[in-house]
Amino acid sequence: MRPSTLKINILSILFVLCGDVYALDTSAQEKTCLEIGFKTKTAAFGNCVLELLERRDSAIAVTDPDDAICRNYGFKPKSNDYANCRLQIDIQRHRNLQQQAISDEQRRQFDAQLAEQKRLRQQRASEALMDYADRLTPKPAPQSNQIITTPGGKIVNCQTVGNVTNCF
Fold first, then answer.
1. Which listed residue, of 31, 39, 58, 122, carries a Cα 20 to 30 Å from 136's Cα?
2. Taking the CA atoms of the chain, what radius of gyration do you get in angstroms?
3. Is residue 41 situated within a structural domain?
4. What angle do CA 162, 164, 167 make, to 5 degrees?
5. 148 bridge partner residues
6. Residue 69 in contact with residue 81, Cβ under 8 Å?
7. Which domain holds residue 120?
8. Which of 63, 82, 113 is the last residue of a domain?
9. Which residues of the chain register pLDDT less than 70?
10. Same domain for 74 and 100?
């Protein structure tokens, strides 16, 4: 086979395969048009199918706010301008979500800093209160214990509290 013939065959196969992938299923609309009374392979039947497809698409579009926005700007579905409009809305929505995530993280960090500052203030206040209580509490007199040996060899235990010494 010649290279150009091979290329043509490959391209033909690709078109057939791609045609199947992007085929529009109109069987439900065709069935409805037949039930209404249109005859197949007529212009009226084709118009009926197309009208039902447009109604289906517009019914779907009613529930899609992005579609309504793009239509309000005058863009027609299935046009490049309409696709660009939907793309811009999607990109902006993604940016908004990223900004919201950044904002949420900053808020979390700010709240954590506030909580840490509050904890430190409470700790300092507690320490100051403990220091104040220590200053108000009377200190016990210094105390010491001594063992004394008398000239007669007797061992006596003495305890001194403040200015008073007791031996026993």
1. 122
2. 46
3. yes
4. 125
5. 156
6. no
7. 66-137
8. 63
9. 1-23, 57-63
10. yes
- What is the domain count for the chain? 3
Shared-domain flag, residues 75 and 52: no
- Tell me if 15 is assigned to some domain: no
Has residue 5 been placed in a domain? no
pTM: 0.42
DSSP output for 31-94: HHHHHHTPPTTSHHHHHHHHHHHHHHHHHHHHT-HHHHHHHHTTPPTTSHHHHHHHHHHHHHHH
Angstrom distance (rounded) from CA 64 to CA 72? 13
- Predicted pLDDT at 20: 46
89, 120: one domain: yes
Residue 96's Cα: distance from chain center in Å? 11
Query: Which pair of tokens denotes residue 62?
Result: 């009613």
